[in-house]
Amino acid sequence: MTHSAWLVPTLPLIASLVTALFGRRLGEKAHWPIVIGIGSAFLVSLGVLFGLDHPEKIHLAEWIHVGSLNVPLEFRVDGLTAMMLPMVTFIATLVALFAAGYMAGDPGYTRFFSVVGLFVFSMTGLVLSNNYILTYGFWECVGACSYLLIGFWHEKPSAAAAAKKAFLVNRVGDLGFAVGLFWLWTVIPDHNLAYENVFGMLSQISEIDRLGIGLLFFWAATAKSAQVPLYVWLPDAMEGPTPVSALIHAATMVTAGVYLIARSTPLLVGIDTMAPIVATIGCLTALMAGFYALTQTDLKRVLAYSTISQIGFMFMGIGSGVGSVVQFAVVAGMFHLFTHAFFKALLFLGSGSVMHAMGHVIDMRRFSGLRHRMPITCWTFLVGSLALAGLPPLSGFWSKDEVLAALSQASHVSEHNGNHGVATLYSMIYWAALFTAGMTAFYTFRAFFKTFFGPEKLPSPNDPEAAHDDHHHHGDDPYFGKESPYVMTLPLQILAVCAVFVGMVFAEPTTGWFAHLVEHSIGFEQLPHAEAHGFDWVTAVLGTTSGLIGLGLAYVMYAKPSELPAKIAKTLKPLYDASLNKLWVDQIYYAVFVAPLLALAQVCRYFDTYGVDGLVRTVSLVPRNIATGLLQRFQNGVIQAYAGVAALVVVGLLVILVLT
Amino acid sequence: MPNSIFTSADLTAYLAIGAVLFGLGTIGFLSRRNLIVMFLSAELMLQGVGLTLVGFGRYHGNWNGQILMIIILTVAACEAAVSLALVVQLFNRSKSLDVTIWRDIREAGLPALVELDQDVEPFLAAPGSESYPHLSPSGREPEVSVVASGQRAN
Amino acid sequence: MFEIQPLQLIQCLIACLSGGVGTYLMMPHRRQFAKPGLVFAIGLGLILFAAGQLMMLGGSPTPIVSKVFFNIFAIASVVASALMITARDPVHSALWFAVVVLSTSGLFLLAGAGFLAAGTVIVYAGAIIVTFLFVIMLAQSEGKAVYDRLARQPAQATVTGFILIWCLLIVILSNPGNTYFQSGSNSSASLAPRLIPAKDLVNYKRLTATNPTYMVMGKTLTPEITLPDTIQATLPAGIPQPHVAGLGAAMYTTHLISSELVGAILFVALAGAVVIATPRVGGESS
Fold first, then answer.
1. What's the structural domain count of chain B?
2. Where are the alpha helices (DSSP H) in A226-320?
């Protein structure tokens, strides 16, 4: 089954093309090619997962062959890929199914599904590709698809702006990837950037080169995976349709950065400075995003910040790879990515279901107490929230626990190696991560309680918070205030089941299946690893306690209407404002980067208008004045006048012929 | 004649006559306003060119000049066919063969120069009354219904 | 390159001036009265004078009969074309054009292009002019149209035309290959010296006699108009060389593609004329 892995990206691509070509004819059924295409890709990838006994290369075709540069169209199936493929296709299938209900009646129905197919194609291709250049190509495809989907409602200015922002911020990151590729190309003796070749030549690459390349790749990953300092695009990406958010946050987009760093681990291992940098950035991101999420009133925005925060956790996991912890660290980070995909997709689809029922209102101040009206959404959302909060025995618990355990081990190993500064750093990160876990539980359940508990309230245009662009008429919306249709709740229930069990099935302390898979990826066998880590009870208890405290706080403050939140907000006014305004990062970026660029553009514009164009216009005045003043009257429309001029020209030619 | 020698002086004579015909054709094309006379002038220019070609062909002792002239002859026939069709169309539109009516390709915004049609030479009718041959009827005149003739007029 | 002699220059100038003045005198004018016959007579005389000058400028074929006929045809063609472009009635124009064509055909005949002369008479005088006359009859509005009796800027047109003629004559007479006036006598030099460079260039004699290139080059380089050997061989002995055979041989060997193209052009023109001339039912032209 492994050799048919090339079908995994191909099927969604074909489905996408079919939808794009025949979409108009398919009309209301435009989602069928995509659902079938991605669904069968999921089945194939399941076959790949279970049929995998040894890593395999699939050579499809030559792609680029220029001079010493040889980039084949080649796929690689190993543990990491076999793990990612079913996850991506599974979630994408459910999202597509959900979107069939959610997007029904949208004028761009066909376009939406076509791009979704392309998105899945890009992501699976990215995961499968066997060399850095092909990875880069798919990386860019993913960026382009995200641009198309975030700006799906492009007639809405905010959506267009959000798409542009996402694209531009990603370009800033892609620059890092590109420069890193060039660098890597120069240091690899035979210029072959296939993974096995790069990892086989590690001894010939100097440490400083590896650090530089690693940092550039990490720079790219911060953009794609929304880390400090390039995370600003992800919250705005909420402008896209909610299924897109689920896709981006869970399966196809933000995980690409984590995947890239995890894939490159063999390249980066043994450099002492790299891992702490990754962990620190991850920790900073997790803290900041969690802090922002505390006060957001937009349900989807809360989830967006929680995604950023959780990806910070993943990077903390990968970043704890010092000494003998490297292999365990990668497993922890990737495992958190894996479980996170399920419950984050669940939460986003749940919020989409809420939005669908609320007439596209997503402001939590405008609705509450929906648990009776939307029971299925409520229960599935609760499962997702519990998983995100990391409470046992749900999936989030296992992966978060592994990340925390990796951090604590990293601290121990550094201490053991006599590296006290790094050890202190790691223990600080450990405690910060525990604190973030508590915050996560708090804001997740704040959102849950505000949405599903309290007095029942539906959005009405008379609300003081009602946005002025709220022009939906609820009267003609058959789903307003009701549970979503079956096609939407079914994926929610499936995902809820997964969010409960997926951690247990794969986790290190239970089966160790996941670790076994990831360890059999290219270059991973050689990673330093310690023997059998026991289950770290201290970390587990601490993490769970932290989560429970957050949950309890949220229950006290938000489960019933109370004055407490307002009071706290008043007491901690500066902190509250800082959180609400996201530390004014957007404003700072605007002042530091955007405004000077705009000023420069303005200068260029004036130079162009008055400098260059002025010169051109001045020159153009000469022929124009000659024409209007002198030549125009010869253009009088009389054929014979033209013929006379022609005859005179012949005379002139003859004179020249004779005289020269 | 074919076996006599064709000197460069002979060639010069042919070329000179060809040039004169060409020039006179140019004058006619430039000054006459009747579309048909203009085309006749253009044919005159072609005749001048033909003389030149035949002279050169004879001078070089090969057939190329004559063959080129045959080609010109054919193209002239084509040109006459197409241009006369155009003339008929233009006449149908304006009921006149005057070329100065057609000035639509002039520069936008430029006033149309109106040809002054006064001070024209009087028309000199041929002396004597116009006489047409008188034919005696050769049979009974066919009856033509009003409706049919009306249809034909359309 | 400018090798013309001052005498020729002055001769040209006189011919052009007199011809130009003559043409202008015969052109329609804007005087509200018909031009008196005397003016026409003067104009015609000036044109005749100019034509005579032209005859003196150029040479003429050596045998006396040829010389006489050449001069008759040349002067006839020039005078008839002047009359053609000045005639008030388009029918007269067409008839004068027929005269031009006939005299040109005579000149063709004198240049050894018998078939072409016949073809020109048939095609032009027989077909094209008749077509013109048909159209004139078809489109004539009362036969007394104002625009036929008004020339458009006759002075400028005449000046332009005769400057053109003058320039052309100068160029023709200062042709570097023109040895006639430089030697001052009728030089009947052989063509062979002028053709040697061409021979050297192609060196066609190396080829075998049956090679098509050899045949074409042979025809091209032979001063006499003769038939290729292959056709000559098929003729019964004693029969003179047919003129048309050589022309046809050249036309369907060397110039085959041109002939085909001309046929295509004829076909296209036929279709075009049919499309253009068909009255459109319901179109803007009623």
1. 1
2. 233-236, 242-246, 255-263, 265-268, 274-293, 299-319
